[in-house]
Write a structure and sequence with these properties.
Blueprint lengths: L2 H8 L4 H10 L2 E4 L7 E4 L3 H16 L16 E6 L2 E5 L7 E4 L15
Antiparallel strand pairs: 1-2, 3-4, 4-5
């Protein structure tokens, strides 16, 4: 399982794993050999099928997060101006990113209003 899906699969405080266990009766454990692998044990085939369906629903809700190439030029939305830089939104599903003034101008800027 990719790293960006693990938190959504587990849920806050493990709530999704607890729901799988309590509602369906499936035991979910993290694999000791691979950090991105989870092992599910079900009492029967129907429970396993239902658990797989529930996991697919959990992971399908996530909007595809784009992968950015280092050094690429992107169009972003400025969320907040600060004294030392700006917060920008690269994608709606990603948290805002702080870009310092030194990265916005080729020359040294002492006051941000000179940009």
């Amino acid at each position: 399982m990719p790293a960006h899906n693990r938190a959504q699969f587990v849920g806050p405080g493990g709530v999704n794993l607890k729901l799988l266990t309590s509602e369906i009766g499936v035991q979910v454990t993290a694999s000791a050999s691979d950090a991105g692998e989870f092992v599910m044990f079900a009492p029967n085939k129907e429970a396993m099928a239902e658990a797989k369906e529930r996991v697919e629903e959990l992971l399908a809700d996530e909007e595809m997060v784009p992968e950015y190439e280092f050094g690429a030029i992107l169009e972003v939305t400025v969320v907040e101006l600060k004294e030392r830089g700006v917060n920008v939104e690269m994608h709606p599903s990603l948290p805002s990113v702080f870009i310092p003034v030194s990265q916005l101008a080729a020359n040294k800027v002492r006051v941000y209003t000179h940009l």
